[in-house]
Amino acid sequence: VSVGGWRPLTGGGRAALGRGRVAGAYFRSGASRLLPPSKGSWLVVDASENAVRTGQTCAADLKALAERGVRIYSVANLHAKVFVVGTKAFVGSANVSRNSANNLIEALVVTSDRTLVADAKGFVTGLCLDELGQARLKRLPEIYRPPKLCRGGATPQRPKHATGPPPPPPRPPP
Length: 174
Fold this sequence. Notes:
Elements: E1 2-3, H1 6-10, E2 20-24, H2 31-34, E3 42-45, H3 49-53, H4 59-67, E4 71-74, E5 81-85, E6 88-92, H5 98-102, E7 107-111, H6 114-126, H7 134-143
Parallel strand pairs: 2-3, 3-4
Antiparallel strand pairs: 1-7, 2-5, 5-6, 6-7
Helix pairs in contact: 4-7
């Protein structure tokens, strides 16, 4: 288990997903640059009108990826975060957003076990039922609204363990 889930996904700073299968619940503004899938990749997001209208999914980023040869699929109410790239699968809490990458404490399980990687790929592929065509990709930006985030004070600070190993588990009571 990796704390600070973005490091394994981006290779420690190289934001390059490569060709893969990805299911990511939220694909916010700037996500196509944060974790750019390559041509031939399959991306599953919640691109429902509600998700786009509330800014959970950025239509312009989806359109940009589609223009680069990424196949985009939509599943309403998607909450999964599964990334399959080559011989590895990454499953965790990280949304594809700058907030997730820069501010939140995320966890990620990374595996190269062939059976688990195949299962993860099958899971993502099984979600690929509603491909976004050019007409929908053209219409979605018209309804997009930036998210309204409550910022009740200062920007949260990541605990020191967020970039290193997690803290030790609590000791059982005597």
